[in-house]
TrEMBL record:
<comment type="pathway">
    <text>Amino-acid biosynthesis; L-leucine biosynthesis; L-leucine from 3-methyl-2-oxobutanoate: step 4/4.</text>
</comment>
<comment type="pathway">
    <text>Amino-acid biosynthesis; L-valine biosynthesis; L-valine from pyruvate: step 4/4.</text>
</comment>
<dbReference type="InterPro" id="IPR018300">
    <property type="entry name" value="Aminotrans_IV_CS"/>
</dbReference>
<comment type="similarity">
    <text>Belongs to the class-IV pyridoxal-phosphate-dependent aminotransferase family.</text>
</comment>
<dbReference type="InterPro" id="IPR043131">
    <property type="entry name" value="BCAT-like_N"/>
</dbReference>
<dbReference type="InterPro" id="IPR050571">
    <property type="entry name" value="Class-IV_PLP-Dep_Aminotrnsfr"/>
</dbReference>
<dbReference type="GO" id="GO:0004084">
    <property type="term" value="F:branched-chain-amino-acid transaminase activity"/>
</dbReference>
<keyword id="KW-0808">Transferase</keyword>
<dbReference type="InterPro" id="IPR043132">
    <property type="entry name" value="BCAT-like_C"/>
</dbReference>
<dbReference type="InterPro" id="IPR036038">
    <property type="entry name" value="Aminotransferase-like"/>
</dbReference>
<dbReference type="InterPro" id="IPR001544">
    <property type="entry name" value="Aminotrans_IV"/>
</dbReference>
<keyword id="KW-0663">Pyridoxal phosphate</keyword>
<protein>
    <recommendedName>
        <fullName>branched-chain-amino-acid transaminase</fullName>
        <ecNumber>2.6.1.42</ecNumber>
    </recommendedName>
</protein>
<dbReference type="Pfam" id="PF01063">
    <property type="entry name" value="Aminotran_4"/>
</dbReference>
<keyword id="KW-0032">Aminotransferase</keyword>
<dbReference type="GO" id="GO:0046394">
    <property type="term" value="P:carboxylic acid biosynthetic process"/>
</dbReference>
């Protein structure tokens, strides 16, 4: 069979594409009633799957979406591998899983049953890489993100992230930092944020309003295993300015080190060390 990179999975079944009718009736498209996960394929294996599935279950509980018994961890993971094989992805890749409430209706749904779509694209790198050049960032202050039972999850239609990314682009920045109602820095547009000061790592707690990132937890665990002091702390602009290092994390890029914040420049020794440790662990597991 000829392979195509356009195949998708809908509720566990392979499809060459999704029909226009699907989007017209889908609640995630019409109302933003859903959430998503992005995952990385490393050496042909789905990275940190158990942590992703735990977050999928937690988000469904928070949104009061019912997971059918058949949609077990093994069922969803096997659906991913079925798509990877169909699309010829056997080394590095990027996966997006979009979850939604099935059925139609307005704000009052006709059903609370979970549905899902999986997309997969090739990434030529087989593991996480440290880029030669750090990224530029600043703080986006026009909108704030509040803490709630939904804030730890990657929800559809989160305009704070979109507006922050548009602002960063207009200001020739690679990314923007987002603040909460208390003017504390909590994350970037698609990443968690970490700072390094005097050999210790600090990152905002989930109850500050940031997403409970899967790679965030992987970095915390890697630091603990390596004996690096790490703390959940409030972070403000002064903490960014006086940090020795700043880096961002997400499930697809791994760790992205920050090269500049306004006139400040940073090192990236500890972030290099952590990404090497995560790559070694994944290589052993593979």
């Amino acid at each position: 069979m000829q392979r195509s990179t356009d195949w998708v999975v809908l509720n566990g079944n392979l499809h060459p594409e999704l029909s226009p009718e699907f989007f017209l009736k889908n609640r995630a498209f019409r109302l933003g009633d859903g959430f998503f996960e992005t995952l990385r394929v490393i050496h042909g294996s789905v990275h940190l799957w158990d942590a992703h599935y735990a977050r999928i279950k937690a988000c469904c509980k928070a949104l009061e979406i019912e997971i059918p018994t058949v949609y077990s961890s093994d069922y969803m993971r096997n659906s991913i591998y079925k798509l990877l094989e169909q699309n010829g992805i056997n080394a590095g890749g990027r996966i997006r899983m979009t979850f939604f409430r099935e059925g139609e209706g307005t704000y009052r749904p006709e059903s609370n049953r979970l549905g899902f779509v999986i997309e997969a694209k090739t990434i030529h790198q087989r593991e996480f890489l440290v880029k030669d050049q750090g990224i530029s960032i600043d703080v986006f202050t026009e909108l704030k993100k509040s803490f709630s039972r939904l804030s730890p999850f990657k929800l559809m239609g989160n305009h704070v992230y979109i507006q922050a990314a548009v602002w960063a682009q207009a200001n020739n920045l690679i990314d923007a930092l987002i603040i909460n109602d208390h003017n504390r820095i909590i994350e970037a547009t698609s990443s968690n944020v970490f700072i390094v000061k005097n050999g210790a790592i600090h990152t905002p707690a989930v109850d500050s309003g940031c997403v409970g990132g899967v790679m965030r937890m992987a970095v915390i665990n890697a630091a603990i295993r390596d004996g690096i002091p790490i703390f959940e702390s409030e972070i403000d602009i002064n903490d960014i300015i006086f940090a020795d290092e700043v880096f961002l994390t997400n499930a697809v890029t791994g760790i992205s080190w920050v090269g500049s914040f306004r006139n400040k420049r940073y090192y990236h020794k500890l972030s290099d060390r952590l990404i090497a440790k995560i790559n070694r662990a994944e290589s052993v597991d593979a």
